[in-house]
Design goal:
alpha/beta; 2 domains; 5 strands; disordered N terminus; RpiR-like; HTH_RpiR
């Protein structure tokens, strides 16, 4: 089973690795259009580019500028703001952007109506298997250590790609309710700034089911190691050499053929939040006036 899972992971990573270093350009555009409180030029450009994303690889910079009702210089500034050297690199990244097909196995992509019930059955069984694996490897002392670091940390941050970033926001919102601030962002540039502001008394959670975050962001990983802060990785791929720098690794299953890992990642996060909340409630009780 482990060899099969490793082979599938290698194939999936090879598919990712054939794209550019910035394969999540659509996420960047969505982030700007969703999070911009001021409807400025960047917001307008990002929203228009999202609406016409799959047309961009065949468009010139002049056509893109006309579409957005801005100048070519504005488009050039915008793509540099995203981290690209110029419009050509941006356009190539759009062409190689990871699509929905990366989420699913060939079995799903080729499924007919009669295949659906068996596919959904296996999907559900694999989710349950992941959760059972995560539960069987649960170490209460490890959870105690991590929660102790959370209590003492001057700063806590979460990092991840796509869905994992959304889970990071969930961690942020829950811990804020327990008077603990967490820094997180869906945007890679903002993630870099978060890491640069950490100290050796900080704690960082990397949510990376298949180690994709580590491969896509080697510069950030180097900064994290230089900072000397505590690192906790939540993953289904704990034996990956890229993870050896972590102080603790929480295993949330072994399978992610058709996004099952997302459910077990959230399960492990909920266990960790529950564990932390127990200490929080105990402290509230101890500090309550008699």
């Amino acid at each position: 089973m482990l060899k099969m899972a490793t082979k599938i992971w290698i194939c999936r990573f090879s598919r990712y690795n054939r794209t550019m270093k910035k394969p999540f350009v659509l996420n960047r555009l969505l982030h700007i259009s969703n999070e911009s409180h001021q409807k400025d030029t960047n917001y307008s450009i990002a929203k228009t580019l999202c609406d016409h994303f799959y047309e961009l690889p065949s468009m010139t910079i002049q056509e893109t500028a006309d579409l957005c009702y801005v100048s070519c210089a504005s488009i050039s500034r915008f793509v540099r703001y995203l981290g690209y050297s110029g419009f050509s690199e941006f356009k190539e990244s759009c062409a190689k952007s990871i699509g929905i097909e990366a989420d699913y196995s060939n079995e799903v992509k080729k499924a007919q109506k009669e295949d659906l019930l068996p596919i959904y059955t296996r999907f559900t069984e694999q989710i349950l298997s992941n959760i059972q694996i995560a539960f069987s490897e649960l170490d209460i002392e490890q959870m105690d250590r991590i929660c102790g670091w959370m209590q003492k940390a001057d700063k806590i941050a979460t990092l991840g790609l796509e869905f994992s970033s959304l889970v990071g926001e969930h961690i942020q919102s829950r811990l804020m309710r327990m008077h603990k601030n967490v820094q997180t962002s869906l945007d890679f540039q903002e993630q870099k700034e978060i890491v640069q502001n950490l100290t050796n008394n900080s704690l960082i959670f990397i949510l990376s089911m298949e180690a994709g975050y580590l491969y896509h962001n080697p510069e950030i990983i180097d900064w994290i190691q230089a900072k000397g802060c505590k690192v906790v990785i939540i993953t289904i791929n704990p034996y990956n050499k890229q993870m050896q720098f972590a102080d603790e690794i929480l295993v949330c299953g072994k399978q992610n053929y058709n996004t099952e890992g997302r459910i077990s990642l959230l399960y492990m996060v909920e266990l960790l939040l529950m564990h932390y909340s127990i200490s929080y409630f105990q402290n509230l009780k101890m500090n309550r006036p008699s």
